[in-house]
Design goal:
Number of domains: 1
Strand content: 25-35%
Number of strands: 16
Order of helices and strands: EHEEEEHEEEEHEEEEHEEE
Distance between the termini: 15 Å
Number of helices: 4
Structural class: alpha+beta
CATH topology: 2,3-Dihydroxybiphenyl 1,2-Dioxygenase, domain 1
Length: about 230
């Protein structure tokens, strides 16, 4: 059984507002999902879910999104859209000659707008990449967990992609930023066959660790790097 349905979940002080920001960025509709705000994806683009949390942002997120561009004018339009929707520019030490634009959404979550001509993200769609801090081991774990093939495995850096194409999920390898608190962005998995317990057992056999069962019945696990993720029931 493979967990093919991937969602990136954001902790948010104002889930509705943050969902509207990302709906405007990605051209998606917001739907209610068990009291949370959801931007549904498909076989090639992960869903985004926004859940209420009072936790403060501590340090840079260990996961951020990369949006692609079809031209320099398109890149500038995406940046302008983000600013109009309440985002802002962010200085993370990028060099002047670097052409990607680093921004933050209204709650400070980092994301990048990638310039046109990026061969790695060619054909991946607007949400081109979920870029993660992580080891090669965790990239291999997620390849097995999702049933997605490795499309990059070099110099401790890994990336995977759905067999249907679309958004890539990548891990940058060492050195890793320290994990100081529960991740504000994390993965949710929905078992393809609907058997939550069988899926949890499978993921544990691949190297995940059991942490707890949430109030909504989702099982919280940690991947080999210690990053929390959830396996949802039906």
């Amino acid at each position: 059984m493979l967990s093919r349905l991937l969602t990136v979940t954001f902790d948010a002080h104002d889930p509705a507002r943050l969902a509207q920001f990302w709906a405007g960025m990605l051209g998606r509709e917001v739907v209610e999902d068990a009291g949370n705000a959801l931007l549904p994806g498909d076989d090639t683009q992960p869903s985004l879910r926004f859940v209420p949390s009072r936790a403060k942002k501590v340090g840079p997120n260990l996961m951020h999104l990369h949006l692609t561009s079809t031209s320099h004018a398109d890149q500038q339009h995406t940046v302008a859209t983000a600013l109009d929707l309440g985002g802002g520019h962010l200085d993370v030490g990028q060099l002047p000659e670097e052409e990607h634009v680093v921004l933050a959404d209204p709650e400070g979550n980092e994301f990048c707008v990638i310039p046109p001509g990026n061969s790695f993200l060619a054909g991946c769609g607007l949400l081109g990449e979920v870029a993660c801090d992580g080891t090669r081991e965790v990239g291999l774990f997620w390849s097995e967990a999702l049933g997605w093939p490795l499309v990059w495995d070099q110099d401790q850096q890994t990336a995977i992609q759905s067999p249907h194409g679309g958004t890539k999920v990548a891990w940058g390898g060492p050195p890793l930023n320290p994990k100081e608190a529960r991740n504000r962005q994390r993965f949710d998995l929905t078992p393809a066959g609907g058997d939550q317990q069988a899926e949890v057992d499978r993921l544990v056999s691949l190297g995940a660790a059991r942490l707890e069962v949430g109030a909504d019945g989702a099982v919280v696990l940690a991947d080999p790097d210690g990053n929390e993720f959830r396996v949802r029931g039906n």
